[in-house]
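tool_call: predict_structure(chain=1)
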Amino acid sequence: MHGNFEVDQCGLKAMCMSVQKTVKVLLAAIMLALVPNTGAAATSDPANASEEKEFNPAELAMEHVLDAHEWHLADYSGHSVSIPLPIILWDNGLKVFMSSAFDHGHSVVESGGSHYVIEHETIYKTDAGGTLTYDEAGHPTNEKPLDFSITKNVASMFLSVLLLLGIFIGAARSYSGANVPRGIASFMEPLIVFVRDDIAKNNIGEAKYRKFLPYLLTVFFFIWINNLIGLLPIPPGGGANVTGNIAVTMVLAIFTFILTNIYGNKDYWKHIFWMPGVPVAVKPLLAIVEFLGIFTKPFALMIRLFANITAGHIIILSLISLIFIFETEWASIASVPFVIFMSCIELLVALLQAYIFTLLSALFIGLAVQEHEHH
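tool_result:
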């Protein structure tokens, strides 16, 4: 035993290994969800890219919190400095090239006899001249290939998954033949025990929590690590907003939804469709409310995480933008201290949102598997 925790070391090792398997399933599901979201962020119009533009704080914020096909670092001497990422398209065959071929939206890319342009981070088929046709609302009507590109959010998520696997594999191995945890395991043990005892056991129950613990551990650390990576000002992590992407939070919420309803017992469904102890005249109306609650609970999980993480990024960027809005370095006297303060708050929010999502997931699952006493 180690410290004040009475920990079954074999159990902790098994939990770490289970988390590794859950991470792989979670990664595959999120990758599928991100496919239609690769063209989320807005970029400047290529036709006006060379013109001097007035600073737009809203555009800056959106470019940061939304996804992109390249990892923007800075602008230097009127040129954008970025890390190119792989473009993977399916259009009568597989087309693979780097995002740098688009030259930040200024160039037409030819691949396999087809031509492509990128506008507002969406890739369209075009001709050799890069012609785009628009509808009345100003949206391009050109055909779009299937886009499986590695965007900055996907690249950041790969990094977080590698960290997650490395942490849990290292923690599991450190228990081999040791009486006390060593290295990373000494840091992970209190966190794993906290999720096990204070979240899983308290909300699901002693008898049934073990079945759901690998998922809860995966969700907790996946959200926390991605939240922390998103706070980094430079790559890896800088500019990525994985948990602020609604496709990612949607997949996490769907996993909770599936586990809750697949493992829900007969008492769970009875309390939804024909709640005992309620007048018969009220039961049909209450059944409708409870049935809607099946969907509103995961929806609230999805929106809560997405909104809180995105809002934090936007607030920090808005404070930084004050320097450029007022066009004086004196604005930094007020904005920089507030940015530092908000960044410290965001460190707390990163952990708090991981805890809240995991806690509510355990609570919903616990309500579904709980055995009720009927008198």
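agent: The chain is about 55% helix and 10% strand. Proceeding to next step.
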